[in-house]
Amino acid sequence: MKQEIIIVTPVYNDWQSFNHLADEIASLARLHNFKANLIAVDDGSANPPEIKTGEWRGRLEVQIARLSRNLGHQRAIAVGLVIASNMEKDLPIIVMDCDGEDQPTDILRLLAEREKDPDAIVFARRAKRSESRLFRLFYFFFKLIFRILTGKSITFGNYCLIPPASLDRIVHLQEIWNHFPAGVMHSGLPWTTIPTTRGKRYAGKSRMNMVALVLHGISAVSVYVEIAYVRLIFFSLLIMLLDFLGFLVLLYVRYFTPLAIPGWATSVAIGLTVIMIQAFLFLGLLSFIILSYRSVKMFIPAVDYKDYLLSLRRVKSK
Question: Are 150 and 11 within one domain?
C-alpha cells in the first residue's frame, strides 16, 4: 500500500527554493513509493507565487495558502497546520523549511522513527551547527537564558513529524502562534528527537540574523511566560533578602567593629536602599503583568486563522 503524508512549509519571497523543494520531494516520493500533499504557506510575499510544476502527477499535490500579511515563520506554520487538519486525512504531517537546510531525505528517517513510537512527535535535531561562530555564541546564550527562565532545554527547530492523532490538539494550542517547538514542549504531548545534518540552501542567504534570533528567543520564552515570571519574582525576593542582609552587615560593621570609614556607611546604605526600591518595584510590576496576562483572551489558531487567510488554491501538476 502506498504511504501518504502531508507536508507544511512556510514561504516568504523564496519561490525559487520552494520549486526546488517540490521537485526533490516528488523525486523522493517516486523513488520510495509514497505520495505527498504539500501545503505552502505564502507568508505575505511581495509578489504572487511563481510555481514551476514538474513531473509531479500521482506523487505530489501542492496547495498554496496565501496570507493577508507577513506573520512570521512560526505563525505561518500554525496556519498551515490548521489547513492540514481541515483536510481530514488521517496522515502524518511533516513541518519543514523550504530553503533546503531541512533536507527532504530526512523525511524517510522521521517516518522510520515514527514506527518505533507512533504517538510521539519526532523532531529533527541538528547534530552539528554550521553557522558562524558569533551566531553560535548567541545561540548558546539563548539556550542558557531559556534554561534559566523556564527550566527547560530546547535543542531543535521546526522540522518534525506530527502523528495525526496529535494534530487536532496542536492546532488548538495558543502557544504555537508564537513559537511552534516550545509550544509543543509546553503542551505535554510526547516527543522525541533524531540527529540530522543541516543541508545547503537552494538559493539566496539565510534571513536569520542577530535581531531575528533575539526575537525568536523571546518568542520561545513567551510560551513559558508564567514560569518565567514566577522565577523572576523569586529572583526579586532573593535580591530583597540579600539587600536586607546587607543592611544587617552594615549595621554590625558600623557600630560593633572599628572597620567603618567615615561616610562609608551612609553611601552603602543609600546604594542598598536604591537596590531595595528597584527590586520592590520590579516585583510589583511582574505581579500586575501576570494578572493582566491571565485575563487576556487566548488566540487559538484553529479558530482565528481565518482572519489572515486570503486564499487557498490547488496547483495543477503536469
Answer: yes
